[in-house]
Amino acid sequence: MLREGQATAIQRADYQAPAWWIETVDLTFDLDPAKTRVLNKMQIRRNPDVSAQALRLDGDELNLARVMVNGAGTSFKMDGNQLVLENLPEGNAPVELEIFTTCAPEKNTKLMGLYVSEGTFFTQCEAEGFRRITYFLDRPDVMAMYTVTLRANKDAFPVLLSNGNLVEAGDLDDGRHFAKWVDPHKKPSYLFALVAGKLVAREQKIKSRAGRDHLLQVFVRPGDLEKTEHAMNSLMHSVAWDEARFGLSLDLDRFMIVATSDFNMGAMENKGLNIFNTKYVLASQSTATDVDFANVESVVGHEYFHNWTGNRITCRDWFQLSLKEGLTVFRDQEFSMDMAGTPSARAVKRIEDVRVLRTVQFPEDAGPMAHPVRPDSYIEINNFYTVTIYEKGAEVVRMQHNLVGREGFAKGMKLYFERHDGQAVTCDDFSQAMADANPDSPLAQHLQQFRRWYSQAGTPTVTATGHYDAAAQTYTLTLTQSCAPTVGQADKQPFVIPVEMGLLGQDGSALPLQLQGSTDSSHGSVSTTLVLTEAEQTWVFTGITQSPVPSLLRGFSAPVVLNFAFSDAELLTQLAHDTDAFNRWEAGQRLALRYALQAIQSTDSVVGNVLPADFVHALRDVLRHPTLDAAYKDLVLALPSEAYMAEQLDVVDPQRIHAVRESMRQQLADSLQADWAWAFETYVDTGAYRPDPVSTGQRALTGSALLMLCLAARTSGDTVWPGKAYQRFKDAGNMTDRFNALSALVHSGAELAKPALERFHALFKNEPLVIDKWFALQAGTCDRGGNVLPAVKQLMKHPDFSLKNPNRARSLIFSYCSANPGAFHRTDAAGYVFWSDRVLELDAINPQVASRLARGMDRWSKLAEPYRTAAREAIARVAAKPDLSNDVREIVSRALGDD
Predict the structure, then answer these.
(1) Binning pLDDT at 50, 70 and 90, where does residue 342 land?
(2) Which residues are paired to 37 by β-bridges?
(3) CA-based nearest residue to 143, from 192, 195, 98
(4) Is the separation of the CB atoms in 663 and 599 below 8 Å?
(5) Does the pLDDT of residue 605 top 90, yes or no?
(6) pLDDT of residue 112
(7) pTM of the model
(8) Beta carbons within 8 Å of 852's beta carbon, 6+ residues apart
(9) Of the candidates 301, 277, 297, which has an alpha carbon nearest to the alpha carbon of residue 229?
């Protein structure tokens, strides 16, 4: 691995096609945890479009035993981690290359390449893990046909899996056996996978719309099989949805999912053999919450959809990562919304996605790690599996969808596959197919400008002003756009920004829209999309008989910050009446944020009533609304997060923000106590568990109500509701209700929290994913007098805690350092010291996980004193370590560069 002083940035502009192609790969593995032998036989051929060059194969931590060319020994040299062959035959005839290596999977704590988890072999090859298995052209634009033979002890490793179709299997001497797999599709090395171990499978045979038979399998460890029904159902739904929505059918005889508890990511879309974190496969009503059920459905869908958008068409280079990830996130979001069914349930999903974007991606766009959706350079590619690439990338795809329409998007996808199936291509190739399939669309008209979404970092700001002329009965709307400088990009050119909007009357009624000078047949409707392409543009609406309330950026039609001088009364009108569910929610968020910022920036001490009475009354109306869905009510009643509040400020005092938000939460608990009690009793569900949107929403709202009632009990001294929460915790028939009750006790600081936590651990001590929740809850709870950090340190000594397991490390350490700002940002800097200790400790074990933790200090330069100086010292301490990994060094160096 490159160390300090050796790291070199890789530039997108330097891309060159490979000098050699690898056409076929025949791999034979003799699997042994201590010493696995890998025989790699490749047929390679010079690329005639590139001048003759030596063959340079990537490798990492391999023991090289033999290299042969066309059956004979050959000379070679090592250049760093690369195996260089300079004397290969000239001409374009195929060359047979054979490489024999060994590796030590049981010592691989990085969980990249081939590794062992609880006695089972797994692989993770994206982005550059295949080079830890054998020497190879480990880049996504080299696509080859793979044949894989696995040999292992049959008792220890009875199940042997790899990509594609099983063509042969049998017993060998000495208690060993083998399996031979052939993948009928070309793939890049990052999609290679193997699994070997003691596993059991849930199986389902299906027939596609095209009439083809397929076998679906979900492999897990013995004892977990009963928790795989939801994952299998989600997989079947995904197969059916992709056929129905996009005409994309499963292209393999079998499709396999395998779950492991030791995994750096959420899941991996290896062709036909997806490897998943157990968190996104295992789900039963007794061990998984509604959120877990939804995540399983979403992630299973995401990885399956990669079979076409990522596998059949992959990215030319890692700078194009969003080509597959942004598009596939969009597809899994659409899948989840379509599965939700009702307009209200779709709106809930959209709001949840936007909350992630604004609380995580917007800060990334404003911080030292800001990068375009298609980055221009990187030092460690693992650091660019980010919310910008994924979630913002999905928003860029969504804008294309909105600019060409649903049917137009389907036509664009069809053309994309007709042109590029089996190829490694670029983000521009995708947008070109979308535009060419829809030549009359705004996307086609502004394609080159639209592509700035891929090349420019930062979150644009759209500022809107409106003027109503009562005499002329016109409403003039002016939109301006700007984008602040980001790392390496001082000047930004205008984006193409679709702004969906409507106008409301003072009574909340939707007003018909007529654009001056337009003959568009859609005009006269109550919603329209304006396409902002200039730094400033103006539109005039005619026939407006009253001063309207503008409803702008409906459905969050573009990933921008919207500024408009809404009055409180206008926002209250939207909160009560806007027909766009997103903007109705957004109105409440804007009001809550406005009152929070006023209190944070005030010089007065934080008092009990931050929220004015009319806003509290409006929230009461939402809570008791007769027709709104429970899930939607729960979102409207939720306050903006401390992190989101912090992003609105130039100078951040984390403790001030924490105090204000806690005061707001306590006020809502006290002022609406009777309403929360009504909501709890109204929506409590005592029937059979169902993870459908209606039932899920009801459980979410009753969980929130229970927390607020326990908070109100802190003020009143009442013991009834904490007692009810404890009883519900004991009696709950599903994990959602049980964990909601436990969370209410813990977050409210109730005395019954301690026995409840002890009981919870005793009940679920043999369920790792549930114990992850137990750790995370305690690390993420509201800090009272600095009590959280000592608890976290004590939990690190718990026999169930292991830093080597990514899920467990994330559950405790990340929940404290990255998700609990009120507890982490301490005036004594102890939180920062703890962070630096853990980053350094993790870096020696698993640099990928360590670099994710390092990101928790991205926004340190916004902090007020004394936090700012202490945070910088902690980052500098990490950066000073001489043998720091590239993963972490890139993060902390860029953070310090933001000074």
Answers:
(1) confident
(2) 30, 102
(3) 192
(4) yes
(5) no
(6) 98
(7) 0.98
(8) 810, 814
(9) 297
**Is the separation of the CB atoms in 628 and 753 below 8 Å?**
no
**Is 303 a residue of the active site?**
yes
Lookup: tokens for 238: 């995904």
Please tell me the distance from the alpha carbon of residue 263 to that of residue 266, in angstroms, as a whole number: 7
- The pLDDT score that the predictor gives to residue 375 is 97
Structure-token pair, residue 719? 């013991």
Average pLDDT of the segment spanning 518-537: 86
CA distance 708 to 669: 5
Omega cis (within 30) before 866: yes
DSSP state of 33: S
What are the tokens at 684?
């409590």
Confidence at 517, pLDDT banded by 50, 70, 90: confident
Yes or no: say if 464 and 477 are a contact pair by the CB < 8 Å rule: yes
Contact between 792 and 834 under an 8 Å Cβ cutoff? The reply is yes
Total residues found in the chain within this entry: 899
> What are the tokens at 247?
């005409």
The residue among 114, 156, 117, 118 whose CA lies nearest residue 131 is 114
Rounded-to-integer distance, Cα 613 and Cα 623, Å:
15
Pair of tokens at residue 456: 């420019």
Spatial contact of 527 and 515, defined as CB atoms under 8 Å apart: no
Which candidate in 126, 128, 303, 647 is catalytic? 303
* CA separation for the pair 131, 135 (Å, rounded): 6
- How far is the C-alpha of 201 from the C-alpha of 220, rounded, in Å? 6
Tokens of 79: 């250049």
CA–CA dist 169, 206 (Å, integer): 24
Residue 328 has pLDDT above 90, yes or no: yes
CA dist 544 to 243, 414, 505, 580, Å?
Answer: 45, 42, 9, 20
Say how many C-beta atoms besides its own lie within 10 A of residue 440's C-beta. 9
Q: What is the DSSP-derived secondary structure letter of residue 606?
A: P
Element (H, E) at 593: helix 581-601
Residue 873: strand, helix, or coil? helix
Strand partners, 284: none
Residue 66 CA, distance from chain mean position: 42
**How far are the Cα atoms of 334, 460, 463, 500, 727 from residue 560, in angstroms, in the given order?**
20, 5, 10, 12, 45
Classify residue 694 by burial, with Cβ atoms within 10 Å: 0-12, 13-18, 19+.
middle
In this predicted model, what pLDDT tens digit does every residue of 11-25 receive, in sequence order? 999 999 999 999 999
**Structure tokens belonging to residue 587:** 């109105």
Model confidence at 6, in pLDDT bands (50, 70, 90)? Answer: low
**Residue 281 pLDDT > 80:** yes
H or E element at residue 326: helix 321-340
Per DSSP, 509 falls in state P
The first and second tokens of residue 76, run together, are 């070679």
Which of 653-659's residues contact partners 24+ apart within 8 Å by CB, and which partners? 653/600, 653/863, 653/864, 653/867, 654/821, 654/822, 654/824, 654/825, 654/863, 654/867, 655/822, 655/825, 655/827, 656/600, 656/606, 657/596, 657/600, 657/821, 657/822, 658/783, 658/821, 658/822, 659/606
CA-nearest of 283, 128, 103, 238 to 735 is: 283
**Alpha-carbon distance 376 to 148, whole Å?**
36
Token digits of residue 792: 């976290």
Token code pair at residue 354? 């936007």
- H or E element in which residue 43 lies: strand 36-46
Residue 213, helix vs strand vs coil = strand
At position 588, the amino acid (one-letter code) is G
Positive or negative torsion for Cα 365, 366, 369, 371: positive
Neighbour tally for 127: CB within 10 Å: 19
CA angle 548, 554, 556 (to 5 degrees): 145
pLDDT at 1 over 50: no
Angle formed at CA 55 by CA 52 and CA 59, multiple of 5 degrees: 160
